[in-house]
Write a structure and sequence with these properties.
Subcellular location: Cell membrane
Strand content: 25-35%
GO biological process, one term: iron ion transport
Helix content: 25-40%
Membrane topology: Peripheral membrane protein
Largest sheet: 6 strands, mixed
Number of strands: 12
Number of domains: 2
CATH topology of the largest domain: Rossmann fold
Order of helices and strands: EEEHEEHEHHHEHEHEEHHEE
Bound molecules: adenosine-5'-triphosphate, magnesium ion
Domain ABC transporter: 7-243
GO molecular function: ATP binding; ATP hydrolysis activity
CATH superfamily of the largest domain: P-loop containing nucleotide triphosphate hydrolases
Oligomer: single chain
Distance between the termini: 49 Å
Length: 276
């Protein structure tokens, strides 16, 4: 199934005050695919996602959804098509988990029409999918960082948009929960055809889960393509200033970046558990 929405940035620049952060970015999210945006801290990834979801205005260029500039699309229509999970979302004080996830349903509610069985179902499904159903009545304030992150992901899922942007959805999660969330987003992509774009800092998980990788440096796009094509030692040096080697991930056969660091280069066997 492909829903075929197209979300693109055309010669897009944006920033804060007179400071340009996103600097002339041209990109189109492959419809029905998973894209991952990588880049060093402060290079402009969050600003790009915020501009692509209309939270920050372009200073030049445009963000175009299905052929229309997003500033021309009615708010409700935009919110039922395009969802954003920001990097540091803020929950209203004291709100219960189920109520926060329920807020993801707001764009779907007709004027003067209250909550429907379909809303209930979407919330229950999202709570179950993210493994937080047993927290439904708890206050969001009293959750651990990882529990809270999964509740936010549940809210984004409940919104049930065809295009979903997520800014570091795996922060605060232990490795098992990171893999679980990325598997869940992949399920969503495969079953509903949701176009997903997310920022990830773990380059190896990014290379594994992305159909398409976008790499940014200082507000500009410096690489775009399949992970196997773009993840090279030269790119890792260009984007992160990191000396690293790139192997094949033995599980997924995608690029696996191993940083050299200054203290651990060693010529002994490279597999833990390998015969000496
Ligand atoms: N609301 C804001 N007002 C002013 N400057 C901001 C604001 N948000 C971000 N910036 C600045 O814009 C630059 C890019 O920030 P952005 O959050 O887009 O980076 P990022 O690539 O997402 O970084 P990280 O990996 O740390 O999340 C930084 O220098 C930051 O200080
Ligand atoms: Mg960020």
């Amino acid at each position: 199934m492909t829903l075929d929405h197209s979300l693109a940035a055309n010669a897009l620049s944006s920033g804060y005050g007179s400071r340009t952060i996103v600097d002339g970015v041209d990109l189109e999210l492959p419809p029905g695919k998973i894209s991952v945006i990588v880049g060093a801290n402060a290079c402009g990834k969050s600003t790009l996602l915020k501009t692509m979801s209309r939270l920050v205005r372009p200073s030049s260029g445009a963000v175009v959804l299905d052929g229309s500039a997003i500033d021309k699309i009615p708010t409700k229509k935009l919110a039922t098509t395009l969802g954003l999970l920001p990097q540091q979302p803020i929950a209203p004080e004291g709100i219960a988990v189920a109520d926060l996830v329920g807020r993801g349903r707001h764009p779907h509610q007709k004027m003067f029409r209250a909550w429907t069985a379909e809303d209930d179902e979407a919330v229950a499904e999202a709570l179950t999918a993210t493994g937080v159903a047993d927290l439904a009545d708890r206050s969001v304030d009293e959750l651990s960082g990882g529990q809270r992150q999964r509740v936010w992901i549940a809210m984004a899922l409940a919104q049930n948009t065809d295009v979903l942007l997520l800014d570091e959805p795996t922060t605060f999660l232990d490795l098992a929960h990171q893999v679980e969330v990325l598997d869940l987003l992949t399920d969503l992509n495969l079953s509903r055809g949701t176009t997903i774009a997310m920022v990830l800092h773990d380059i190896n998980l990014a290379a594994r889960y992305a159909d398409h990788l976008f790499a940014m440096r200082s507000g500009k796009l410096v690489a775009s393509g399949a992970p196997a094509e773009v993840v090279t030692p030269a790119l890792i040096d260009q984007v992160f200033g990191l000396d690293a080697e790139v192997f094949l991930d033995p599980v997924s056969h995608t690029p696996l970046v191993i940083p050299r660091g200054r203290h651990h280069a060693d010529s002994r066997p490279t597999h833990i558990g390998a015969p000496a």
